Structures are given as C-alpha cells and as structure tokens.
Here is the input.
Amino acid sequence: MNDKEEEKIVQHLKQDWQYIDDLGKGSLSQLDMEKQLVLFQQKKKKAFYIESTLFLLTAIVILTVVIVSLFEAPLFFLYFQIVATLIAPFAVYFTYKKVNKKGMFDYDKS
Here is the structure.
C-alpha cells in the first residue's frame, strides 16, 4: 500500500468513528422515554377498546342472525348447521397447516 491509500483509509475510519460518536449524543432522556411509553400504552388501550367493541357488535349480529334463522326458518338453520359441521374440520385443518408453514407470527426476516 502506498501512503495515499493508507491516508484515505485512515480518513474514512475517522469519519466512521465520528459518525458512531454522533449517534450516541442524541440519546433520549429517561423522562422522554417514559412519556413515549405512556403514549404507547394509551394508544394500545384505545385500540383494545375499539377492537373489543367491534368484536362484541359482530358477535351480537351473528347471534341475532342465528336466533332469527332458528325461529323463522328452522329447516334453513338445520341445513346451515350440517354444512358448518362438514366444512369446519377442513377449515381448521387448512388454517393449522398454514400457520405451521409460515409460523405463528409473520414478520419480515430481512
């Protein structure tokens, strides 16, 4: 190696070291981290309430449809139960197979 190449390498290393040093200067204080944690928890709590409300509304609608169909059209209800009983094992099998193929949590592995 000649002196110019060594000088370029040293200069490049100094720039990288300076960059690494600059990364540590802007760290968050404990108070800032606590504020961010509280905001995150509030968002999660709000999302939980929204999701729970949607779940309950969906369950009420489904149960209402099932009860109405039971009393208004018992034959339709019976056919629906038979079809659901026949299809459910296949749906569970394919869902189980898909989850085991991809894993429980689908995330980017890059």
The CA atoms of residues 45 and 55 lie 15 Å apart.
